[in-house]
Amino acid sequence: MQDERSSKRGGPDRQHVSGGKGYEVDELAKKHGISNDQASRLIRQIGDNREKLDEAAEKLKKR
User: Fold this and answer.
1) Domain that holds residue 50
2) pLDDT mean across residues, the chain
3) Per-residue pLDDT averaged across 4-33, rounded?
4) Comparing C-alpha atoms, which of 37, 29, 35 is closest to residue 54?
5) Is 21 helix (H, G, I), strand (E, B) or coil?
6) What is the rounded (10 degree) CA torsion for 6, 8, 23, 35?
7) Residue 41 lies in a domain
8) Average pLDDT of 7-17?
9) pLDDT over threshold 60, residue 11
């Protein structure tokens, strides 16, 4: 029988961003109105935690 968790989409992996994938950098940049360079820098500094990245991007945008 298939594990219930494995059949759900958007699970724990969606909580992380991959800095090596351009489309995810682009997605973060567009979502928060920042440049791709700024988004890449945030991913390098903060890591791949989507919640923390969203918070940091919003703070950056307000500057």
Assistant:
1) 16-62
2) 81
3) 71
4) 29
5) coil
6) -120
7) yes
8) 60
9) no
48's tokens: 């791949």
| Within-domain flag for 4 | no
* Any domain includes 53: yes
How far apart CA 55 and CA 45 sit, in angstroms, is 13
**Which pairs from 10-16 meet CB under 8 Å and 24+ separation?**
14/50, 15/49, 15/50, 15/51, 16/48, 16/49, 16/50
Residue 33 in tokens: 């109105």
State phi, psi for 16 to the nearest 5 degrees: -120, 150
Whether 21 is in a domain gets the answer: yes
Phi–psi pair at 19, nearest 5 degrees: -70, -20
Residue environment code for 28-38, b if the CB has 16+ CB neighbours within 10 A, otherwise e: bbeebebeeeb
Q: How many domains does the chain have?
A: 1
